[in-house]
Write a structure and sequence with these properties.
single chain; 133 residues; 4 helices
């Protein structure tokens, strides 16, 4: 697997998401936002692979943590794309990215707080701290 532990994966995700949030709202940093967009996309690919590997070895803790963090990273990616599309004067596409961002964040939050709403998925209390701690 890409990471040796859930804590290692969550630490890397938190660091990359924090970096992405720093450039999200800039009005004059198109190039930095585009670079961050590529980093977030790479993170998402890495998380998808980690998630799939965790499922294959039936490691529920890793699979659940990857699922939550995958949605957090996707929310940020959509949010970055929203700002880039607004700068490109594409408001309809930007709106779609806003909706996707909110959906991804909502799924991550709901799953972390109320795992029973996702049939067939449970998450240990350890993973619930992913969003806030």
């Amino acid at each position: 697997m890409e990471w040796d532990s859930v804590k290692e994966m969550e630490r890397d995700v938190r660091e990359l998401v924090d970096n992405g949030l720093r450039v999200c709202f800039g009005s004059c940093c198109h190039e930095l936002q585009t670079q961050e967009q590529h980093r977030q996309h790479a993170l998402i690919q890495k998380l998808k692979k980690y998630h799939q590997q965790a499922i294959e070895v039936q490691n529920e803790e890793q699979a659940n943590a990857a699922f939550i963090n995958l949605n957090i990273a996707a929310a940020l990616l959509h949010h970055l794309q929203l700002w880039l599309l607004l700068k490109a004067d594409c408001p309809e596409e930007a709106w779609n990215q806003l909706v996707e961002s909110l959906d991804s964040f909502r799924v991550a939050g709901l799953f972390a707080v109320r795992p029973e709403i996702c049939p067939g998925r449970r998450t240990p209390s350890l993973v619930r701290g992913t969003l806030g701690g």
